[in-house]
Specification:
The chain has 70 residues and is α+β, with helices and mostly antiparallel strands. It has one helix at residues 3-16, and strands at 19-34, 38-53, 61-69.
């Protein structure tokens, strides 16, 4: 994942509340399309889950999910 996309996701996560832990996982699925030549096309889905913790006595959670198709 490029630094530009990572910074955008990180910015949104920081906007969520105070402190965030971002975990991004890219899942690739290959599909074979048979024409005259059999080609394998990969479609990647980036699933970013951000868990935000408010730094107070009472812990508060905020969940942010983003799906980026590339």
């Amino acid at each position: 994942m490029s630094m530009y996309v990572y910074m955008n996701v990180l910015y949104v996560c920081i906007m969520c509340i105070r402190m965030c832990i971002c975990m991004c996982v890219c899942l690739c699925i290959c599909m074979c399309v048979c024409l005259s030549i059999c080609m394998c096309v990969c479609m990647c889905i980036r699933m970013c889950v951000c868990m935000c913790i408010r730094m107070y006595m009472h812990t508060d959670w905020c969940i942010f999910k983003a799906f980026l198709f590339t």
